[in-house]
Design brief:
The chain has 301 residues and is of the alpha/beta class. Helices cover 54% and strands 11% of the residues. A five-stranded mixed β-sheet has the order 1-2-3-7-8. Strands 4-5-6 form a three-stranded antiparallel β-sheet. A hairpin with a 2-residue loop joins strand 2 and strand 3.
């Protein structure tokens, strides 16, 4: 029994072809000529019959070709182990899915366009749109580049060398000249006055703690940390490159503190003196995942 089952498994295409071929031959002879190949009585009549005319010629030719056609086709199927005729099925599912995908992508694009400014408050939406379409071209310069630019400016503004150096000044004029020419050293700070006040409170805290620091591009840099401050009382909306408020925008402190921290190989820190940032509950975990330490109290420094 197992041999029979294995035969049908190994020659399933041959078995299927035999069944289909037999059914086709039976249908053709029975419906065209009324001859049933499964009845021995019909074969007995055929053995004593004489075929005449065109119908007899077609019937005889068909009977003679049935066996050679079956043998030749069966040999091909057995050797190739493939069906003799394969009918490709239409891929309706994939064709129907592609238009759906295209429609979904169009709808998603339309939704993205419609929702570009939907999460922005109405009172600052025009300012956000203007700043988004026309971002400010602000470059953060290092102290070295600032010093070189100041030296070039001083060289350009220098007076030509006079031909006669015999110049006499009164004592009062000499004092005025010395006061005016005395260099005054100030820290570079690109933030507003409120940030200066807050920076002073941070520096006071660092002075009390005995921590050495320096100011670089408006950020406080210690031996272990680079600190950025947000303490503006306006409502702010963050973006990858800039932060926006009503009538103003600033470069993202996140990018600035990350660049300075990478330059000095220290930990970036963002001090949030104000919580007036849109989606701040979502942004704080995101900033912390980028390696930024977010604090809300100076005691955490």
């Amino acid at each position: 029994m197992s041999k029979i089952i294995n035969f049908f498994k190994n020659h399933k295409h041959f078995v299927n072809w035999t069944v289909c071929y037999t059914a086709a031959v039976w249908s053709l002879l029975y419906f065209m000529f009324g001859f049933n190949i499964f009845k021995g009585h019909h074969w007995h009549i055929l053995s004593h019959a004489h075929l005449h005319g065109f119908i007899g010629f077609v019937f005889g030719a068909l009977l003679l070709s049935i066996l050679p056609i079956y043998l030749s086709t069966s040999t091909i199927i057995i050797r190739t182990k493939k069906p003799l005729i394969t009918i490709p099925l239409p891929k309706l599912g994939k064709k129907s899915e592609e238009p759906k995908k295209q429609e979904d992508s169009k709808e998603n694009k339309e939704d993205e366009k419609a929702e570009d400014f939907s999460h922005i408050p109405l009172e600052i939406r025009p300012a956000f749109a203007r700043a988004k379409n026309h971002p400010l071209d602000i470059q953060i310069k290092s102290p070295t580049s600032i010093a070189s630019n100041s030296e070039a400016t001083e060289q350009e503004t220098e007076l030509p060398i006079p031909t006669d150096f015999d110049i006499s000044f009164s004592p009062e004029e000499i004092e005025d000249i010395q006061e005016e020419s005395m260099p005054i050293f100030k820290d570079f700070n690109f933030e507003d006055s409120t940030t200066d006040t807050q920076t002073n409170s941070i520096t006071e805290h660092l002075d009390k703690a005995g921590i050495k620091y320096s100011t670089v591009n408006g950020l406080i840099v210690t031996d272990t940390q680079a600190i950025a401050v947000h303490n503006d009382s306006d409502f702010w909306v963050t973006d990858n490159e800039n932060w926006f408020a009503t009538g103003k925008s600033i470069p993202s402190p996140i990018n600035s503190v990350k660049e300075i921290a990478a330059q000095f190989k220290v930990t970036p820190v963002l001090y949030l003196a104000e919580q007036n940032i849109m989606d701040i509950e979502t942004l704080i975990p995101q900033w912390e995942s980028e390696g930024i330490k977010v604090i809300q109290d100076l005691s955490e420094l």
